[in-house]
């Protein structure tokens, strides 16, 4: 789980071009959207593709992402439970 | 249509014009595959990391030039944002196109697509300064910037006070290499963002007066002479009233258009060029416009801007003429204020 | 503004018809042009529906009597067909008789050719000509040459509001007496680039789109072109021209909210409608029909509904015709301008197909039938990426 969380942080920083951040800046419980990292709806779509590409999880409705992308912690748990690769 | 005033100009180009304007500038030497990127600017001074993380070169150049030129005019905002761009957001277009082809339509992400539309620069300027006014983007190749200028003039004749007009193009990574293989010219391909604020009324810090703009798609060389004569006449001017003519000479086969008016119309006029400094791109003529404002204000330019040896005591009225591959011509008339 | 700028000609090609008359018949018989994609090989074929014109590029070129169809992008061919019709419908024999302009708009330009040849530009000498197909002015230039215009030519690209802006610029140039006559509109062919782009935004419906419906899933992309001919009062008087309608109002505003999404309160749309009404000097109560942008995406329709409610005390009869044609991107404002003029001519408000239930929050119900009614003024909205919002108002002669 810790390894997955680290991997997720690295990927989020890379995929979303958050070049000023390091994985140490992102806490497991930080809100990714809104007041936390300040991600937006386009980032959510980027993360949906990441889920599909890296973990074989397909979301068809972007609104499903709202809960899943709450924090790195929540996302890691969801991936662990649903991954197909 | 009434003439309008230019309140400020900012140039991001292959030269360090952003900081220094046109000073002693270096000529860009053309060698094979010598695309010249815009002079490096510290964009972080103007853009927060969260705002800039999706921005390609052209968007960064455009937004920063826009912010600075509005500031320079002493304004908080403008009534309208108008951009001209030849190839638009070509970096992101190429990126998304490559992804579609290389990944066979799978695992594609939206960022490069949404940033690829031609109006991204104007849109991002509006977003960054929270401007809800008129917003427009012209994409007509080599006279995209002049179409934007014309629109700006129209707007200022329609009850608007201040408009932002700019030309912006980025090199990109892919198509430019293809262009380079088929087009022979003496200057490098480059990129830049040249932005201006225009106003309906003269202000203390106005830098020049914009008298008229005309764009036309095609013309033959003989008719060009007539076209210029009637353009000047429309503004009650004669050839002898033009102190300097600023030409988009780039060393390709279509320089014959410039040669025609250099040798038949403007023999006693100071002739200037600028693409040896800016490089060639679809909105390089916006750099030419910047050169014109610099000449009117400083009354001098570096020696490598001058094409002939005719010099004038006083540079008051300037004509710009540009075309690319014999198409997409533009005439712009400026005078000092 | 007294009457506005005279519209004396129009031309259109869309998935519901190759001519103005064919488009009208489809609108009246409430038959859409939404189908499974055939002309483009895409892996999404079974997951999307499109407003595709079922003619190959070769067949389109035949309509124009052009040889060597391979030279032209789909965007050019569609545009040339619509522009030619517009000129014919305005009874113009010599396009250069007056100071005439051509203002086209496109979002993809020659993307179909770019997609096809970008890896093989130098494999054969003939492929080199396609290097310039990415340049958005290329289609404009080709259409201008086809119709014989060499003077004032320009291209606008403000995503999905492009053609509305082209129409607006044309009117302004006539009013400023820079032009006597101008052909204005837009053209866009379907391409893999846009299909996949909208797919990544997850706003493509796998069914026929349902504008303004509570359960709408997204849009259907479409393709097409439409142009209007605008003429100055002097030309109309001198030539004793029949005027189809007047463009009485127009405006452009920016939502300044997000690169692609519209603000919840529809600020940009609200401002565009407000400014257009003001320019036309019309009260909201005299608008008889609204041809909405209504793409069928959750975001657009919610935002546009809010804007309509903000501007109109009582929202007049309205519909989105995108359920017929699909969303034709840069051409949409032109296609819907033609539909707005047809609404004035026929005194009919066209049906909003596939609608069942109102959006809970706004409770707006578009007309689900084509209805006959007195129509003097039609308001047409076109919005695009980058917060671009434009409104046109067409008035009966």
UniProtKB/TrEMBL annotation, chain A:
Xref: SUPFAM superfamilies: ACP-like
Describe the location of the Carrier domain by residue ranges.
1-83
- Keywords in alphabetical order: Phosphopantetheine, Phosphoprotein
Coiled-coil region(s): none
* InterPro entries reported in the protein's UniProt record: ACP-like_sf, PP-bd_ACP, Ppantetheine_attach_site
Supply the Pfam families for this chain.
Answer: PP-binding (PF00550)
Q: Which domain of life is it from?
A: Bacteria
Task: Identify this protein by name.
Answer: Acyl carrier protein
UniProtKB/TrEMBL annotation, chain B:
SUPFAM superfamilies in the cross-refs: Thiolase-like
Q: Where is the signal peptide?
A: none
State one molecular function term (GO): acyltransferase activity
Q: Which residues form the Beta-ketoacyl synthase-like N-terminal domain?
A: 45-170
Under which name does UniProt file this protein?
Beta-ketoacyl synthase-like protein
Q: Which organism is it from?
A: Tenacibaculum caenipelagi
| Organism placement in taxonomy | Bacteria, Pseudomonadati, Bacteroidota, Flavobacteriia, Flavobacteriales
TrEMBL record, chain C:
Gene3D superfamilies, from UniProt?
3.40.47.10
GO terms (molecular function) for this protein are: 3-oxoacyl-[acyl-carrier-protein] synthase activity
Q: Does the keyword Signal apply?
A: no
Q: Which UniProt keywords apply?
A: Transferase
Q: Which residues form the Ketosynthase family 3 (KS3) domain?
A: 2-396
Q: Which GO terms describe its biological process?
A: fatty acid biosynthetic process
Q: Which residues does UniProt call coiled coil?
A: none
Gene Ontology cellular component annotations, sorted alphabetically = cytosol
Assigned protein family: Belongs to the thiolase-like superfamily. Beta-ketoacyl-ACP synthases family.
The protein, known as: 3-oxoacyl-[acyl-carrier-protein] synthase-1
Organism, per UniProt?
Answer: Tenacibaculum caenipelagi
